[in-house]
Amino acid sequence: MINVLLFAQLKDELGKETLSIEGNGMSVAQLKGKMKVDFQLEGLETVMTAVNEEFADDDTILSDGDTVAFIPPVSGG
Amino acid sequence: MINVLLFAQLKDELGKETLSIEGNGMSVAQLKGKMKVDFQLEGLETVMTAVNEEFADDDTILSDGDTVAFIPPVSGG
Amino acid sequence: MNYNISKEPIVIQEVIDKVVSRNAGAVTTFIGTVREMTKGKKTLFLIYEAYVPMAIKKLEQIGSEIKERWPDAETAITHRVGKLEITDIAVVIAVSTPHRNDAYEANRYAIERIKEIVPIWKKNTGKMGRHG
Amino acid sequence: MNYNISKEPIVIQEVIDKVVSRNAGAVTTFIGTVREMTKGKKTLFLIYEAYVPMAIKKLEQIGSEIKERWPDAETAITHRVGKLEITDIAVVIAVSTPHRNDAYEANRYAIERIKEIVPIWKKNTGKMGRHG
């Protein structure tokens, strides 16, 4: 299972901040596609992704136990 | 009388920080010349001068009661 | 512990204390506070949310980037999360260097990078137009 | 009382408090401290001397110059005089503005002007070469 973390507007949109998703062997892009279909999450293609707390691109392949965080545009400071 | 204030190396050189000098009607340049002769103060031509706490140039005419401060290069901050 | 995400109010002096050293002649701090008016709209309060472990890593990365560019610089950053009222402090960045120009430059670099790569989000729940 | 010459240690927070406001989103501070090594020579302590009434006027003038260039800026400056040990604070400059770039620029302007026009002198009585 892949641990998925949602923040900011994505968290509000889905109404939860963590999910467990079957995704061993998937790419980040495939996971985004699956989540779009399963949860009708808007704008997922344009957000940054972190895998295990480091930014990762859409080609990154996921393994069971990975933590994937979707990072909408940041606004700290 | 003109009140003269000395700071930093000028104060150390002369060994005092205030002087009263007859100088009514003198220019700042003339006062500097007089102090150079009377006290052998070096480098007085190159320091800035303040009259009554505002920077003044060598042509400024002094009157009794004025306070003249010689301001060596500043090094605050 | 120079890079922190805090739920508690930030004490500026504590962040500064982390970077003061015998070889630092200059310390700059940047203090980001919650401003009441933005583009004619009034903010009542803000809620800051962070992906905490990654945010700390990214703050540490900014510190490493500064060290590469300004080897003599010491940096400390604390960012607050939770509900912040007007004038509350959201972030404090302290940078010390031997000479002052570097302290300004490195500090500014830090805030720009925070706004690019640190996973922290500001939610403005209390914004209203001029007439409410 | 935003512009001061002080014989007592400077409390950074007190200087910052003078410039925090509801419309300030950014506060920058510059803290000048006594550095141990300068060009390979060791400082033991410094003595700062000021022409106090004129120094205060000139600090106020710097505040006016900042206000002309950055109308939304609030500035406070305290400079210490007397004997200062290594890491002691000689000067604190705090500037608040609505947006951060101005806070950095105006702060930097202030320290540059202090070094030009404020009658304060640093006497290094304890400087020695590397071998004493």
TrEMBL record, chains A, B:
Per the record, the pathway is: Cofactor biosynthesis; molybdopterin biosynthesis
InterPro entries noted in UniProt: Beta-grasp_dom_sf (IPR012675), MOCS2A (IPR044672), Mopterin_synth/thiamin_S_b (IPR016155), ThiS/MoaD-like (IPR003749)
May I ask which residue range the UniProt record assigns to the signal sequence?
none
GO molecular-function terms, A-Z: nucleotide binding
Query: Which UniProt keywords are listed?
Result: Molybdenum cofactor biosynthesis, Nucleotide-binding
Provide the Gene Ontology terms for cellular component: molybdopterin adenylyltransferase complex
Q: Name one GO biological process term.
A: Mo-molybdopterin cofactor biosynthetic process
Pfam families listed in its UniProt record: ThiS
Domain of life of the organism in this record? Bacteria
User: Its quaternary structure?
Assistant: Heterotetramer of 2 MoaD subunits and 2 MoaE subunits. Forms a stable heterotetrameric complex of 2 MoaD and 2 MoeB during adenylation of MoaD by MoeB. During catalysis MoaD shuttles between the two heterotetrameric complexes.
UniProt function note: Involved in sulfur transfer in the conversion of molybdopterin precursor Z to molybdopterin.
Q: Which family does it belong to?
A: Belongs to the MoaD family.
Q: Which PANTHER family does this UniProt record tie to the protein? A: MOLYBDOPTERIN SYNTHASE SULFUR CARRIER SUBUNIT (PTHR33359)
Q: What is this protein called?
A: Molybdopterin synthase sulfur carrier subunit
Organism whose genome encodes this protein: Peribacillus simplex
Record gene name: moaD
